[in-house]
TrEMBL record:
It is found in: Cell membrane; Membrane. Its main location: membrane. Gene3D superfamilies: ABC transporter involved in vitamin B12 uptake, BtuC. InterPro entries: ABC_BtuC-like (IPR037294), ABC_TroCD (IPR001626). Keywords: Membrane, Transmembrane, Transmembrane helix, Transport. One of its GO terms (cellular component) is ATP-binding cassette (ABC) transporter complex. This is Zinc transport system permease protein. One of its GO terms (biological process) is transmembrane transport. Pfam families: ABC-3.
Amino acid sequence: MIEAFFRFDFLQYALFTGLMIGFLAPVLGVFLVVKRMSLIADALSHITLTGIAFHMLLARYNPTIAAVTPLYLGLAFSVSGALFIEWLRRMYTSFKELAIPIVLSGGIGLGVVFISLADGFTTDLFNYLFGSVVAVTIQDVRLIAIITIVVTVLLTLFYKELFYLSFDEEHAAVAGLPRQWLHLLFIVMVALVITASMRIVGILLVSALMSLPVAAAMQWAKSFKQMFVYAVLIGEVSVVTGLIFAFQLDWSAGGTIVLVAVGLLLLSMAGRRLLTKVAVQMNNRRTTSVE
């Protein structure tokens, strides 16, 4: 594996991309889980698929477009979908959760139409659906690096505001925070990360990388900041281990990464339960000895 890493450029691209995604997805996933908006990743991922399918449709009639990575158009559709979700949330003030299934359904429908017009599924489209180590290019690495820098800077600048808004939205509004603007900024960041993640994990599995490491981290974290650290650590281990197994066993990269993340979640749940049981037994022994 080490020898192949230095020999093949695509393995280097996949690893660098995976490390960036292993950081970005769990970090935003923490906010999504706390805000109970985990399903928004599914909605935006399907909108991204629509953008990818539309690019392939355009490339069918214009060969020059085929030379450009579909990530750019996928990014445009994803950000547009994020803006549309935020607009729907304002329209349905009492039923904000409706925004997600509306965009999800519309994205799937439009995507299927574009795919049928583009002569159905192709190898490239399957790579975007399920992720591919071989398909990662230097263009993808550059775009994902830019997204990583932008999202990291925005999270650093607006961490306190997003933290406050995630736990107590009403008090945040009373305190004078620009709630709608912050929601819009956050949802656009989610759209950027989803676009970045789909090259390795795949469109259909990207939401898993934003929720599974967070779910595992919640078993151990005792504070909000610890949840970030543990989620990123679990995310990075999932991505790197998944890429190694995918290369060695010739499996799908996205599916393997998700399976590793599921395994780490199950181990975390079992380990936490075991520690709790041991702690209870030790406490009972101390109580008995005192009596």
